[in-house]
């Protein structure tokens, strides 16, 4: 049987997929707190922006985060339309290394102007030893690897996504 | 489990990233080739929503936002089955939907189309497939609406669907269209799908689930990416 084709999430997903974040009167099934930051001393925050080919910040993207290191299976979802700077933000815990590979989060990215979603990964700048040996990172041309590595700032990790241009983020066929 | 490999997106039926007739793709489509990735634990798993308590009327958009009456428009019931490419049903998976009201207006704050909102219609719903992969929603047939892609551009009537499937390689967001819609031939979002895939996005009128004196029935099945495991011979 043929796969059902994908279509864009469009500009109006918010009241269906992220209703509480956008203040619609409908219960959200998931949000951006994969863990409660107050209850997890090791909680981390990841935030960033999504940029289009003219370096404009995209205000109507939706990101989903999935992580599974065998211990924690965590899922979150957030749109870029509610923050004053159109950032996304997630609270989670850093996954542990599986099979000696560097820890990472999977990102599923949706937006108006994408007829099919894209997949990328978030690795962590303070895991340089594992990153350097990582099979997936090493399969990527060296000059593009950094597009997948969230930079640790004092209390948060920053991860920007570039759809096009010099720093175009690596997207995967999975 | 380690030798199960999920099929890739069939690019003969899925739309490409860049589809210039749909103008928003021009600055948002990745330009570099996708990097192939060996499927690992993360790709072979995904969120499980079985523990969520869905609201009583989450799958009935004609009832889940009532304020002072009933929503206006043509009541419909939409049902179907979620399967993999081998025809195996995918049970207990989350389906979320959102849509415009009968007048072609979304409740979303960004929608500026000069058509009325319906105080008794939100346009969002969700349900889980049952043990045989079946789902069913009651809703109002969404209206067509204009958009800014090109002069006199109108979106055909459609319902947005979001599906999870059994793992994150199965993730699908799509739109269901209605049979015989004259706007389909002009819609760059629908036409972004290669010809081989287009019919798969059009629901069929289904008299067998049409409820007498109540709601017209439409059937829309989903096929998500399957894997290399041998299908059951007796299905």
Automatic annotation (TrEMBL), chain A:
SUPFAM superfamilies xrefs: Aromatic compound dioxygenase
Alphabetically ordered keywords of this record: Oxidoreductase
Transcription regulation found in the keyword field: no
Record bears the keyword Oxidoreductase: yes
Highest taxon listed in the record's lineage: Bacteria
Gene Ontology molecular function terms on file: protocatechuate 3,4-dioxygenase activity
E.C. no: 1.13.11.3
NCBIfam families: protocat_alph
Protein name per Swiss-Prot or TrEMBL: Protocatechuate 3,4-dioxygenase alpha chain
Organism of this sequence: Emticicia aquatica
From TrEMBL, chain B:
Record carries keyword Calcium: no
Keyword tags: Dioxygenase, Oxidoreductase
E.C. code: 1.13.11.3
Encoding gene per record: pcaH
Protein name per Swiss-Prot or TrEMBL: Protocatechuate 3,4-dioxygenase beta chain
CDD domains with a match to the protein in the record: 3_4-PCD_beta
Keyword Oxidoreductase: yes
Entry similarity comment: Belongs to the intradiol ring-cleavage dioxygenase family.
Domain of life: Bacteria
Species whose genome carries this gene: Emticicia aquatica
EC main group: oxidoreductase
Lineage: Bacteria, Pseudomonadati, Bacteroidota, Cytophagia, Cytophagales
